[in-house]
Design brief:
Layout lengths: L17 E2 H6 L8 H7 L7 E2 L1 H13 L4
Antiparallel strand pairs: 1-2
Helix pairs in contact: 2-3
């Protein structure tokens, strides 16, 4: 009986970085209100983000407690 083996390919995904202004301009298309995106990206050192980095920043922002 032949033994079946599978080989997983490791692929490296290279994501494009976009300026903060692009995320703010396209906030509605990304599923967020403009104010939310502007607040999440306000006063950050980095001026460009990948889409996944952007999503992480917005989730962190939305998860913050308001005092």
């Amino acid at each position: 009986m032949a033994k079946e083996t599978t080989v997983e390919e490791k692929t490296t995904k290279i994501e494009t970085k976009y300026p903060i202004e692009d995320f703010i301009k396209n906030s509605e298309a990304l599923g967020y209100r403009r104010e939310v995106v502007a607040g999440a990206l306000f006063n950050l050192k980095e001026k460009e983000f990948t889409k996944s980095e952007f999503e992480k920043k917005v989730r962190e922002f939305l998860g913050k407690k308001v005092v």
